[in-house]
Amino acid sequence: MSALRVLVADDQELVRSGFGMVLDARDDLEVVGEAADGAEAVRLTAELVPDVVLMDVRMPVMDGLEATRRIVASGVGSRVLVLTTYDVDDAVHAALRAGASGFLLKDVRPADLAEAIRVVVRGDALLAPSVTRRLITEFNALSPGGPPPDLQALTEREVEVLRLVALPLSNAEIAARLWISEATVKTHVSAVLRKLGLRDRVHAVVAAYDAGLVHPRR
């Protein structure tokens, strides 16, 4: 199996090299390029077509938000995993709208960063546990979208799976909660994404909040 290809975009050389050493130490991960600003990240993504772009939010020339928007809009297929210093960053809300597939804090443990890349490539996009509830709460408050999604196309079981995805629970946890297999959970999640026209699990979380399946805790 070929290694997953990663592009690291951060304006600090020390951060780029640090992430590079962490990822290259894994047999299944390979850093194929580094970008010092958003514009370079967009250019290198088009040139190298990495599986995942690790994207800093604040960079010169072009910030990570605009870079994420352009990469997703280009249709190149690379997933964008946003890395932020703070547990809630205003730009992250817009990055979610732009199509980012996940969010992690920069102090993430090396093993968790490596696993996050694998998760994002599988399409099981994620939010850092410490970010999730506050991110969704502020995202809905600061960046209201359109009308809530219509869940009528979903079966009762698919609605329940969507609610559990938004708690958020992993596939294994959902399987244990519903007494079904992880493979069945994956099938239900895929059906939810397809029927609601959602890009990935991050957007499924937002859809669940928009639809009122779950509510932020104050």
Blueprint (SSEs and pairs):
Layout: E1 4-9, H1 13-24, E2 29-35, H2 38-48, E3 52-56, H3 64-74, E4 79-84, H4 90-98, E5 102-105, H5 110-122, E6 126-127, H6 132-142, H7 156-165, H8 171-178, H9 182-196, H10 201-210
Parallel strand pairs: 1-2, 1-3, 3-4, 4-5, 5-6
Helix pairs in contact: 2-3, 3-4, 4-6, 7-9, 8-9
Structural write-up:
With 218 residues, the protein is α/β, with parallel strands linked by helices. Helices cover 50% and strands 14% of the residues. It contains ten helices and six strands; from the N terminus they run E-H-E-H-E-H-E-H-E-H-E-H-H-H-H-H. It has helices at 13-24, 38-48, 64-74, 90-98, 110-122, 132-142, 156-165, 171-178, 182-196, 201-210, and strands spanning 4-9, 29-35, 52-56, 79-84, 102-105, 126-127. The protein has a six-stranded parallel β-sheet, sandwiched between helices. Strand 5, helix 5 and strand 6 (126-127) form a beta-alpha-beta unit.
In short:
The chain is an alpha/beta fold. It is built from 10 helices and 6 strands; from the N terminus they run E-H-E-H-E-H-E-H-E-H-E-H-H-H-H-H. The chain starts with a strand and ends in an 8-residue tail after the last helix.
